[in-house]
Amino acid sequence: MEQNKMASLNTQILRMSGVNPRKCMRCGKCSGTCPAYDEMEYHPHQFVHMVETGDIASLLQSESIYKCLSCFACVERCPRGVEPAKLIEAIRSLKTRPVGQNHITPDEIPALLDEDLPQQAIVSALRKYMK
Amino acid sequence: MMKVSYFPGCTLKTKAKQLDIYARACAEVLGVTLEELPDWQCCGGVFNTSKDEIATKLSAVRALSAAGKAGQPLVSICSACHNVLKQTNAAMQNDSEFASHVNHYITQTGQGQMAPYHGETTVLHYLELLRDVIGFDKVKSCVKYPLTGKKIGAYYGCLLLRPSSVMAMDDPENPQILEEFIRAIGAEPVIYAMRNECCGGYMTLEEKSLAQKKSTAVLDNASSAGADLLVTACPLCKYNLDKNGQNPLPVVYFTELLAEALGIKEA
């Protein structure tokens, strides 16, 4: 049963992201160019491998899904066009969409503000971290 | 006078007024009126790449569709707005399933029917307006106070250039558009390695140390290459470089320098 659920999640991730992890040749360039590499438990090349092998449960539990900056460096620089950031986005969406799973809520925002912080930062964080 | 539709975005109306005000005034001098879209809504700041993410992209589609209805290209200045508008437009062109879901929403609103939209509108960044519509030669000929002798580093960040298959503004690893702009206003561009690396973006909210590290690396790299000043088009880049970067190198919006060169703003 649990295995079926994971297989279905995997199919969903592939469909949402449009990514084919089998194109990956394990060169590691995505992780080498990732500005959030140091903050991640699992790195972009590991995301690709873990989706390919169906280890979705670990990714859904990891804080790494909130570290991606959406800078598209891995998407741009992958020599095989795998686009790892799209996988990370799909997994983050799967995690935050169910009720009560928001990573950040509007109530937490006021404490994070300073007078110069652009609105763009707040809307971007809310768009990435909550449904 | 040529007219284009204009999407300012949330931050240009609040914390980044210098981007908005000078962009409009400079465009007038250069023969283009930026006509602000009526009833525009926030673009959301980031484009969610999941294909089944529909509702959060509707505000961008409404803006694109409104510009199309006016028969005008849609111009924005904020790197984030431009990225969201351009990526949404590409999805409307290339992903028929996504476009079909979106059109079910936008063509059934209570406030008057909207025609189905399939990405017909041309999306331009203000820099592309300068380069491809007005022309940097024309910009140069309108300069009254050239910024002679100023050594300026272009900070592209992420969103202006990537993903290049969609953004199609410039070479993502060796861009020229901001350097051409810097030359057009009479200054000298300084090339440095980190001009297209991330400043830390919205992570400043959750993990300030990351934004500090990334922004400082960009500023240190630019100052060691000899830049006196950086220009950017992105309010969040400017915030991170100014507030989180541990280096006093000044950062200004490119529109401020354009306004100085055209004699609209005092240096």
> Which series of helices and strands of chain B comes N to C?
EHEHEHHEHHEHHEHEHEH
The oligomeric state of the chains shown is heterodimer
* Average pLDDT, all residues of chain A: 94
Q: Proportion of β residues of chain B?
A: 5-15%
Structural class of chain B: alpha/beta
- Described by the principal axes of the CA atoms, the overall outline of chain A is globular
Major sheet summary line of chain B: 4 strands, parallel
**Number of domain modules of chain A:** 2
Shape, per Cα inertia axes of chain B: globular
**What's the CATH topology name of the largest domain in chain B?**
Glutathione S-transferase Yfyf (Class Pi), Chain A, domain 2
- Please write the CATH class name of the largest domain in chain B: Mainly Alpha
Describe this protein with a few key phrases.
heterodimer; A: 131 residues; Fumarate Reductase Iron-sulfur Protein, Chain B, domain 2; 2 domains; 7 helices; globular; B: 267 residues; Glutathione S-transferase Yfyf (Class Pi), Chain A, domain 2; Rossmann fold; four-stranded parallel β-sheet; 43% helix
